[in-house]
Write a structure and sequence with these properties.
Helices cover 24% and strands 25% of the residues. It is α/β, with parallel strands linked by helices. This is Alanine racemase.
Length: 386
């Protein structure tokens, strides 16, 4: 197998012009899907590709997953589903965020399936199917503990008596874990039992509960279909153990300028103080590129701060001061001067700076890091060819 690199036509930003260089490893994405599939027992492994495939690009990620064998995709919005359909003409595509009033015909036009989470949505979909004279597929979402979307468990137990279900094809019954990444959380068992009770009232309907972390629970609540998302893109679905997934996204930033600062502050609001003489590298990347301002370093040089880091010549270097809109300042004093120059790139995501670690250092989660990957980056994609 050979590997090829291609620049995303969607970005149209040349690497030499970009402050940030984002690389997406589509081979790793496909490998992660196969790993999740292999851990899901006999259940079908789908792929959640909402939020532009977690920031990696729907138009690139979906074909790579489809080539690996994925046949079912989940998105949040109808507009995302239409994009998936354009690159996966044979796929089954579900829209998680419910049926907006008056959108039934768009679902049919693009052969998409709504996830119905209320009796109002069920009634509207059933009425539309009756008016069209044919049964259309949809999923039904039962809330087993999240308290966001979905029928209550009590409502779910009455589904078998709803006349509207005769007017469309219930292709999937689904729910969503609250805390599957916490393997010993008793809520997991309660949700599994509640979901199983509803499922037993609808024999023959396929069922789906497990997200990325749910796939690895000891109870193996795989049912008929699993819905991995974060783990596909390299996030750790088992935080108490080593990450079984391969990294997918890598981010580098370019050094714009280097300067020495002595006993002075750096950045907006003077929140970071250089004690003695410190060498500061300014990077051409900031919160406008999706790197969170919460990763700012506020304190003094030499202090252990929960703040951002970069890898310079393989060595960790701490942020210095606030993350600004277009720039980040980093303390590179400990790197030999001849090993860091203007125009060099440093690693923002990659190596020891996994997406989970970057999220932790910013006081957030890796999900937010991925889904905020900026539009000003020059994007490249590596894919396997056989």
């Amino acid at each position: 197998m050979t590997k090829t690199e291609q620049t995303s036509t969607a970005s149209r930003i040349l690497p030499e012009m970009a402050g940030g260089l984002l690389h997406i490893d589509l081979a790793a994405l496909a490998s992660n899907w196969r790993t999740l599939r292999d851990n899901a027992g006999s259940a079908e492994a789908s792929a959640v590709v909402k939020a532009d495939a977690y920031g990696t690009g729907i138009e690139q990620a979906v074909p790579a997953l489809a080539q690996a064998g994925c046949r079912t995709f989940f998105v949040a919005h109808l507009s995302e589903a239409i994009r998936v359909r354009a690159v996966a003409p044979e796929a089954t595509i579900y829209v998680l965020n419910g049926l907006f009033p008056g959108t039934c015909s768009t679902y049919v036009e693009h052969d998409l399936r709504p996830v119905l989470g209320s009796f109002e949505e069920i009634e509207e979909w059933a009425s539309f199917c009756r008016s069209q004279g044919g049964k259309r597929e949809a999923a039904i979402h039962v809330d087993t503990g999240m308290n966001r979307l979905g029928l209550t468990v009590q409502q779910g137990l009455t589904l078998k008596d709803r006349a509207e279900l005769k007017d469309f094809e219930t292709a999937l019954l689904m729910s969503h874990f609250v805390s599957a990444e916490e393997s010993d959380n008793p809520l997991n068992i309660r949700q599994i039992e509640a979901f199983r009770a509803v499922r037993e009232t609808l024999p023959g309907v396929r069922a789906s509960l497990a997200n990325s972390s749910g796939i690895f629970l000891k109870e193996k609540p795989h049912f008929d279909l699993v819905r991995p998302g974060y783990a596909l893109y390299g996030g750790n679905p088992t935080p108490d153990h080593d990450n079984p997934m391969s990294p997918v996204a890598g981010l580098k930033a370019r050094i714009v300028q280097l300067r020495w600062v002595e006993d002075d502050t750096v950045g907006y609001n003077a929140r970071w103080l250089a004690l003695g003489r410190r060498r500061i590298a300014t990077l051409s990347i900031g919160y406008a590129d999706g790197y969170p301002r919460s990763a700012s370093a506020r304190g003094k040089s030499g202090e252990e701060l929960l703040a951002g880091q970069v890898l310079v010549a393989g060595h960790p270097c701490p942020f210095a001061g606030n993350v600004s809109m277009d720039l980040i300042t980093v303390d590179v004093t400990d790197i030999p001067e001849n090993e860091v120059r203007r125009g060099d790139t440093v690693t923002m995501i990659g190596g020891s700076l996994t997406i989970d670690e970057v999220g932790r250092r910013a006081g957030t989660i890796g999900y937010e890091i991925l889904t905020n990957l900026g539009r000003r980056y020059a994007r490249t994609y590596t894919e396997s060819q056989g």
